[in-house]
Amino acid sequence: MDRCELCGRAVETTKHHLIPKNRKDSPVARLCQPCHQQVHASFTHHELKQHFHTVDRLREADRLQSFLAWIRNTEKTDIQVSESDRVRNWRG
Ligand SMILES: [Zn+2]
Ligand SMILES: [Zn+2]
After folding, report:
1. What residue segments make up the domains of the chain, in order of their start?
2. Which residues surround ligand 1, an ion (CB under 5 A)?
3. Which of 23, 55, 71, 88 has the most beta carbons within 10 angstroms of its beta carbon?
């Protein structure tokens, strides 16, 4: 069973490239789908690349605290981040 490196839940995960647009050299984190979407909804690729390029930094990011506090206590895996909250080109 996978475990999300951000929220710590034992759920299926997706690959997040910690340095967007540099996939070849980028380290990969395993994030569950809602955490992954939330990361890309909360930060631009520039912010991810400049500062939030480790799981530790993401885990401590002010913008993710309320989300993480909530998701750690839910069993849901099919959470959708609304389109309006999403940063364009969130896949990375
Ligand atoms: Zn997660
Ligand atoms: Zn990603």
Report:
1. 13-85
2. 4, 6-7, 32, 35
3. 71
